[in-house]
Description:
Structural class: alpha/beta
Number of helices: 12
Shape: elongated
Strand content: 5-15%
Oligomer: single chain
Order of helices and strands: EHEHEHEHEHHEHEHEHEEHEHEH
Mean pLDDT: 98
Number of domains: 2
CATH topology of the largest domain: Rossmann fold
Radius of gyration: 21 Å
Strand order of the largest sheet: 8-7-6-9-10-11-12
Distance between the termini: 23 Å
Low-confidence stretches: none
CATH architecture of the largest domain: 3-Layer(aba) Sandwich
CATH class of the largest domain: Alpha Beta
CATH superfamily of the largest domain: NAD(P)-binding Rossmann-like Domain
Largest sheet: 7 strands, parallel
Number of strands: 12
Bound molecules: (2R)-2,3-dihydroxypropanoic acid
Amino acid sequence: MKVYITRKIQSKAIKYLREKGFKVSIYPEDKPIPKKVLLKNIKNVDALIPLLTDKIDKQVIDKMTKCKIIANYAVGYENIDVEYAKTKSIIVTNTPDVLTDSTADLAMTLALACCRRITESRKLIDDKKFTHWRPNLLLGYEIKDKIFGIIGAGRIGEATAKRAHAFGAKIIYNSISENKRMKNDFNAERVSLNKLLNISDFISIHVPSNKQTVHLLNKENLKLLKPTSILINTSRGNIIEEKALVEILKKGKIFSAGLDVFEHEPKIHPELLKMVNVILAPHIGSATIEARTAMAMLAAKNVVSVLKTGNKPITPV
Ligand code: DGY
């Protein structure tokens, strides 16, 4: 049976698939596969392992007449037309859990880098302005005793809450349903989105991108943020109306932002690039050796499970 992988993922997973007897083909370049090349290579595949940068739309799905499973190498799956795949009896899987800790670690990394003004610190040194110790140089904020607002209390939101709670923050969250562990483990209160935006010192976004969440933070409600607040996004760029965020940053209406994802990724709003109080990262939430290896293995195991052991995906979406 044939598997097509749209990029060279961790070799352990490729080896595993080959040991299981699959013929594995891989797009050899380390950049998104052009649609034309994708369409040319997937005609006879039994399984496809795409990346979040590959749009698996109706045209792609129609081309894969033998395909039984699309095993996304990501927890987010907005790149795949899941409903259409379902009509073709193609199973879609993703990679939850295995990247939870790495992404929550990054959310905290950005929160800490923002509140301790790490980019500004580095710039001051690069600009040769570190001439002497100063009592008021680059003062930031501590996390202890601050209100840490989590938007989306799924796995990653909860793991971020756990970290912020360990730093001594008071946790509040907004989520479509109640998460009892947030209350039991972190004494977290569930509040409306507007209240969260209005009272949080730190705001960390952990909702998936879908029709309900695009521009969840927008021109209107971003106005509610405090001038001292810090906004972190490790989820998807289009959850925030980026233009509106740029405006409030430019006007000094919030303290800083830590962004791992962007609305028009990989393009970054030119104004964001100029701001020293904005920490930027190139979508590296799951970029640890542990997480990426586990993501590759989980995608591969989903393929094996569906094709060899009778239609039972491990992590269906
Ligand atoms: C995902 O899995 O959705 C992340 O954004 C990339 O790891």
